[in-house]
Design a protein that fits this description.
Layout (H helix, E strand, L loop, with lengths): L1 H22 L4 H17 L3 H8 L1 H4 L3 H18 L1 H7 L5 H17 L5
């Protein structure tokens, strides 16, 4: 049942994004930004943690989780270190994903030759 709920949640968000992409002039970059901000806003409202507990990987594998991680890290930094903690702590939860993206992009760039 967990797999089904994760699939339905992530699939529905992807389907909504595809409908928006097909019926508006928004680009994939716009959709990505909207979903990231939406994740941060839902985290601000305290809803995103409930989504993660209910849908598991369906909620943590989407770009909206990046917004949630940014917000929750910044909030934790603010609570521990004050205003400066927002900036020094914001990327702590998402640093592994960012580093992985950079390393894998570098490895792919070494292996494959770009088109001219």
């Amino acid at each position: 049942m967990n797999f089904l709920l994760a699939f339905l949640f992530a699939g529905s968000l992807c389907a909504i994004a595809q409908v928006i992409l097909d019926n508006t002039k928004l680009t994939p970059g716009h959709i990505t930004s909207i979903y990231t901000v939406m994740g941060a806003f839902l985290s601000f409202l305290g809803i995103y943690d409930n989504l993660i507990s209910k849908f598991g990987a369906g909620a943590t594998s989407l770009i909206s989780n990046f917004g949630h991680m940014l917000y929750s890290s910044a909030l934790q930094g603010y609570q521990e270190e004050g205003l400066l903690g927002i900036f020094t702590n914001m990327l702590t939860k998402s640093s592994a994903a960012i580093t992985g993206a950079i390393v894998f992009a570098f490895l792919i760039a070494i292996v494959f030759k770009p088109k001219d």
